[in-house]
Amino acid sequence: MQRRSIVRYAGEYLSAPMIELVKCLSFSLGVSLVATWLLKLLRRRVRHGMEEGSQSLLANFVSFVATLFAFVLAFVIANLWGIYNQAGRVVRQEASGLRTIFQVSAQFHSGERLQGLVRDYVHCVAVDEWPVMTKGEYSPKAERLKDSVWHEALDLIESGKNNPVLAKGVFDSLLQVNSARHERMGMLDSSIHPLLWVGLGITGSSTLVGFFFLGIKQKKAQLILDFLVLLCLSLNMYLMVALDKPFSGTGFTLSEKPFTTLDEQLTSELSSSSGKRLAPSPAMRSPE
Is residue 71 within 8 Å of residue 238, measured between CB atoms? Predict the structure, then answer.
């Protein structure tokens, strides 16, 4: 039984990365093979008649454009990868701050309502807001619940009936949650400016056109060279699209698991705490 559970957990953990790997390789290999075949067909039907001296001059230009294209492409992918990792940290920070508010509010005078609001907000983000985020939008209900958590926590802090150290901890967590949410909302749109797409398209197209004019006499070597260049190009373009918009639900997307796990934990703790409050004390139980 334990072995089956381990295998099932491993399958669930590896399923998403493996699916993404298969999609990446399928796209890159497919585009590279088709583009290589089209380039070979174009070379057969179109004869540029360029001499070796002209090709050597063109090689310098193609080398410069290819280097520029590779530099910009590497910069964009590195930037997108950083944004993707930052988005994961933001989600964990928001969930961690909400967890702290929930735990500390249990020690507050009349903190039950704040605990319920935190649980409702976490549930709303996991169930309602996360699917909407794939469309680049946010949930107004989640925004209202976040404001309710904010106002309720401030009322408890300003009441003066609670430990100042705990109150400061809740206030710091409120700031953390608010900052993380706003940062998460700011990552719903694309991080690549349209002008950057235009620049990548021009430099990439110029590189491919240059390779067409720089054909060599060895046909098999030329075919392999074209395939490798197009494979690298298609792979990096896929990475750009997959890393952009980390909450889009496609490509390298972030899961709502931190919030769903926290939702289950908070719901269980609220149920157990309410059961303890409803249970009669030993002194009030009638003797059997």
Answer: no
Distance CA 173, CA 118 (A): 12
Q: Measure the CA angle with vertex 113, ends 159 and 164; round to 5°.
A: 35
pLDDT tens digits for 105-158? 888 888 889 999 999 999 999 999 999 998 888 999 999 999 999 999 999 888
Q: Is residue 253 part of a domain?
A: yes
At 69, list the tokens.
């294209």
The DSSP call for residue 126 is: I
The rounded distance, in Å, linking the Cα atoms of 178 and 129 is 16
Integer Cα distance of 77 and 81 in angstroms: 6
Whether this model's pTM surpasses 0.85? no
* Minimum mean pLDDT range among 84-93, 171-180, 191-200: 191-200
Count of Cβ atoms closer than 10 Å to residue 35 Cβ: 18
- Its domain, for residue 200, covers 19-44+73-269
* Cα-trace Rg, the chain: 28
Domain count, the chain: 1
Cα atoms in the 13 Å half-sphere on the side-chain side of 161: 11
